[in-house]
Design a protein that fits this description.
The structure holds two protein chains of two kinds. By secondary structure, chain A is α+β, with helices and mostly antiparallel strands. Chain A has helices at 5-20, 110-113, 116-122, 139-155, 215-226, 228-252; strands spanning 23-28, 32-35, 42-51, 63-69, 72-83, 86-99, 102-106, 132-133, 159-163, 167-169, 173-180, 187-197, 200-213. Classes of the chains: A alpha+beta, B mainly alpha.
Chain lengths: 253, 304
């Protein structure tokens, strides 16, 4: 079997590149977050090691950016305006995919770590989220709705910006804590870690985290979704039963 | 005591919800209304999504009304024939309401329409009740009891065809009148998560001219069935009934309803009606202000 020379060259070239560039080894405190009946939020510890090839320059100026992103969904953002004295939803804009959760932790403010163009490419930072509008609207209007969505999610702690939350120890180990609110959406999350040196992303790794309801909560949600009729009957039985119990109990007292 | 609500997708202080249910229960026991008109706005105020609040409140009202209806059954205060007609109307109404609800969700106008209906209904009914009860209170103070109001149904009701005899209510009227009333309250139940007792009771008294001894019991009978229909409709269309939330509310409200019924026995009925009118008008005023003031959130997000 003959292997073309260019292919061998390419393989060697790749090896040479990978040998020369740093490697990230990320991990998370828990790759499964379980929402139980007493769930009030959780804290994720994202940590890992940076492995530099020998004689890498500028490793003392390295920055780490961690982007934790929840499942995408298509949404419609509505805007209230004052019409005839009352506030009604007057305008709306659809987005084909917006993450239900988005947290960015970094060693320094994003603006100091990368230039805006790079931040846009890797979605580093809440202001660099790439939301795809479902229909063509002018950029001013798009910006307004994006800002509205981001502001709403920031205040409900679903979009979180954590400059300075990542600490690097001895140019080798990094860690960051990200708090998940009780209203965190369920689904498969990705935690992307970026190593940035001199405003260039030199390494990136991704870990998966699953956030799921378990026990009663899971049962109830699935039931409500898949068996609406039976779920309704159960809800009715519960309320009639409790009402009946109270009605007869109090008569005896 | 933090409890995670699986459908609302957030965690609440369970004790607060139980107490809220209890407070509403006391009022419902005192005044013979389901209390949904209080639960829904209070839940929304607490941060529960409006659709989940309305859907779960209707489940709660079922329990509170069963609890109250049992007491009235013992006193033979339920006109089953009249109640049956109202229930049929209510079932049609919840179906119509479900369609309206879905359409409103598509237009994104659910919250505005709900608020406007609330303000209009509560203001008019609260106003009527306040006027009537103030007159009654004045008459009692002056020591000259009002002449007994001659019981008569509204002329519009009298003009409807096909008359039936409703023995317990002491009426000979067309069943179309309670049917239409049932449909209207069914729509309201679906949209607002209320049993409609605060509309039903005055309508039965002043429009249909039913005997006062069967009004509250029959109203509760109809509310039980209509809220059951509404819970089923919500379960199958909006999927917004949160049983954990409903259970917490129920624990408070079924207990509160019994306490409220005991309080009610110690108070004069005209003062009770005046108090209820005050509460109803206060909520209407608060919601009207909410429509006019700039809301906390200009932007809202809906999943597609």
């Amino acid at each position: 079997m003959t292997v073309p020379l260019w292919r061998i060259a390419a393989i060697f070239g790749l090896l040479a590149v990978s040998a020369a560039s740093p490697v990230l080894v990320p991990d998370v405190s828990q790759d499964r977050v379980q929402i139980r009946g007493d769930f009030t939020g959780a804290e994720l510890l994202l940590f890992g090691a940076i492995s530099y090839p020998p004689n890498t320059p500028d490793r003392d100026t390295a920055d780490i950016v961690i982007v934790l992103k929840g499942p995408d969904s298509s949404i419609v953002v509505r805007e209230k305006q004052r019409v005839a004295g009352i506030w009604v939803n007057a305008d709306s804009s659809e987005f084909r995919s917006a993450p239900g959760f988005f947290a960015v932790a970094s060693t320094r403010p994003i603006d100091n770590v990368v230039d805006p163009k790079t931040a846009d490419i890797y979605e580093l930072g809440i202001n660099h989220l790439q939301l795809s509008p479902a229909s063509a609207i002018d950029s001013g209007e798009l910006k307004r709705f994006e800002a509205g969505l981001v502001d709403l999610n920031e205040r409900s702690r679903r979009y979180i910006s954590l400059p300075g939350a990542v600490t690097i120890t001895d140019d080798l180990l990094y860690k960051a804590r990200i708090a998940l609110p009780a209203s965190v959406p369920v689904g498969t999350y990705t935690a992307e870690t970026f190593l940035v040196i001199k405003k260039r992303v030199v390494a990136a790794e991704t870990k998966k985290i699953i956030i799921e309801k378990i026990g009663m909560g899971r049962f109830i949600t699935n039931m409500a979704k898949d068996h609406g009729f039976i779920y309704g009957l159960l809800a009715v039985a519960l309320s009639v039963g409790l009402g009946w119990a109270a009605g007869t109990l109090f008569r005896r007292i | 005591m933090d409890i995670y609500l699986p459908i609302a997708n957030l965690s609440v202080n369970g004790l607060v919800i139980v107490l809220l249910g209890g407070l509403v229960g006391i009022l419902s026991g005192m005044f013979g209304v389901g209390g949904g008109f209080l639960t829904t706005p209070l839940l929304i105020f607490y941060g529960i999504p409006p659709t989940v609040a309305a859907a779960s409140a209707s489940t709660q009202v079922t329990g509170a009304s069963v609890s109250g209806m049992i007491a009235h059954l013992r006193r033979k205060g339920v006109d089953f024939q009249m109640g049956g007609v109202l229930v049929v109307g209510g079932a049609i109404g919840t179906g119509v309401g479900a369609l309206i609800f879905q359409q409103l969700q598509r237009w994104g106008q659910t919250d505005t329409v709900i608020s406007i209906i609330y303000v209009v209904m509560l203001t008019s009914i609260g106003g009527l009740m306040a006027k009537e009860s103030i007159t009654a209170v004045r008459a009692t103070r002056a020591g000259t009891p009002l002449p007994a109001r001659k019981r008569r149904h509204h002329p519009l009701v009298a003009n409807l065809p096909y008359r039936w005899r409703f023995y317990r209510s002491g009426l000979y009227i067309s069943p179309l009148a309670p049917l239409i009333l049932g449909i209207l309250t069914g729509v309201l139940t679906m949209l607002l998560g209320v049993g409609g007792g605060f509309i039903m009771v005055p309508a039965m008294l002043y429009l249909l001219g039913m005997g006062a001894q069967v009004v509250v019991g029959t109203s509760l009978f109809q509310i039980v069935f209509v809220t059951i229909a509404s819970t089923m409709m919500h379960s199958m269309t909006t999927q917004a009934v949160d049983v954990v939330l409903a259970a917490l509310l129920l624990v408070g409200s079924v207990t509160g309803a019994q306490l409220g019924a005991k309080f009610a026995q110690r108070l004069r009925p005209e003062y009770l009606r005046l108090m209820l009118a005050g509460i109803v008008l206060l909520i209407a005023f608060w919601m009207a202000l909410g429509l006019g003031f700039q809301p906390d959130e200009i932007y809202t997000v809906q999943q597609l």
